[in-house]
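Posting this for the archive.
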Amino acid sequence: MLLADVRMAVPGDAAAISRLLAAAIREDYDSLLGEMRVGRLLSDHCSLPRIRAEIGIPGGAPAWLGWLVATDADGTVVGAVSGGVPVTSEGELYALCTTPGRRRQGVGSALLAAAGERMRTHGAVSQRITLPAESTPALSFFARHGFTALTPVRLGRAL
């Protein structure tokens, strides 16, 4: 399956984003953080009403630039990213996930590039992300894309 598109999320994508984000959190953090902390992450980040509301916020406000989704040629959502520019010149990734079975196929890289471009158009010269754990499986992905450790759970790179 080839990646067909990275686009702004629409209201009909909310359930797919919620499921995908929950699957990615469980896959990556169940063994690292334990059931209680993973449950808190799921509650905080995967709530369908929250994601629906976030998609409904008009894009373009620098602190919140919205959700982007990556889709296969058949329209299936296989990845999602959200972000904004909450501090002058600093982009922030709030979430980045891909379907666990589609990792290492360019989905995350395409989403990261699209989010970075949106942030640059809103004045960001750097990009940051805070990870749920120090030994997250995503560290090698972010390192390949030029991120370095700012703290044990906070990474950053120039755009």
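The domain at 3-158 is CATH 3.40.630.30 (Aminopeptidase). The radius of gyration is 15 Å.
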